[in-house]
Hints:
The complex is a heterodimer of chains A (68) and B (250).
Chain A: H1 2-13, H2 19-38, H3 43-67
Chain B: H1 2-37, H2 39-64, H3 69-95, H4 104-121, H5 126-153, H6 159-180, H7 189-211, H8 221-241
Helix pairs in contact in B: 1-2, 1-4, 1-5, 1-6, 1-7, 2-5, 3-7, 3-8, 5-6, 7-8
Amino acid sequence: MTTLANMLRELAGxxxxxxxxxxxxxxxxxxxxxxxxxxxxxxLAAGAILLFGCLGVLLSNVARAxxx
Amino acid sequence: MTGSLTLIWPxxxxxxxxxxxxxxxxxxxxxAVATVRGxxxxxxxxxxGLAVLALIVVVLGPLLxxxxxxxxQFVIGVLLLLFGMRWLRKAILRSAGVIPLHDETLTFATETxxxxxxxxxxxxxxxxxxxLTTFKAVLLEGLEVVFIVxxxxxxxxxxxxxxxGALAAxxxxxxxxxxxxRPLARVPENTLKFAVGVMLxxxxxxxxxxxLGVAWPGEDLAIVAFAVMFLAVSGAAVVLARRxxxxxxx
Lengths: 68, 250
């Protein structure tokens, strides 16, 4: 049972290592999704939020980790 | 079709490099078990892991065909972002010296010491534990390979090129490991993880965007542009996070 629990934990760890980074990515995706729904005529707006949001999240997360 | 041809090399390269990293990690554990307990439990565990992986692919593979394309692209895109940016973050922090580099020789030594300690405590159960250790390593590292192959090929008919890239990497590592009988410590793992993290993140933005209905300018070529942007930002992030070697956490 412990082995199975460990394996499931490791499996989840494939996608979530730093909780703050994972939450920030999900937030960016959610924001892009909302924008895509609200402004369907300008789909690139959602794309820009997704791309620049992810780049910004990565940069700020790493910068914070570097200061710790 | 032109779009698909544009995608072939990035897909093959990403699948090959990612699988190379995973295969090297699995090989280290298999070699550690083989060194302490012999090839029988190591081989048995590896074969069982490969069998479960094959079962997962055979059962889940056809099911993916029934998921609406847009939904599939969105879900895979988000998972790729989580997976790729996690790799990229770790590679950046290792390049910057914030966290220590992954060391296959150290992993090998730790794993063999652990198995020897288990042997001292309980000899009778050890073969089972050794088999389970290789089974778990092959299954978990293999699942990452399977995920990467499926994710890279999502909705663009790239399953064959992605699988070929992954298979070539696994065969290469298995072959070299069989010949040298040592962990492949000289593989520049962090550089590979850096490159793969950049590519997977770029694919993640592309798929997630397509799932949301974004028509990217330049179609598939946008992935290359995204990769260049992720590379530039990651390079800047390394400089931003860099700290003197003496401060690196052990």
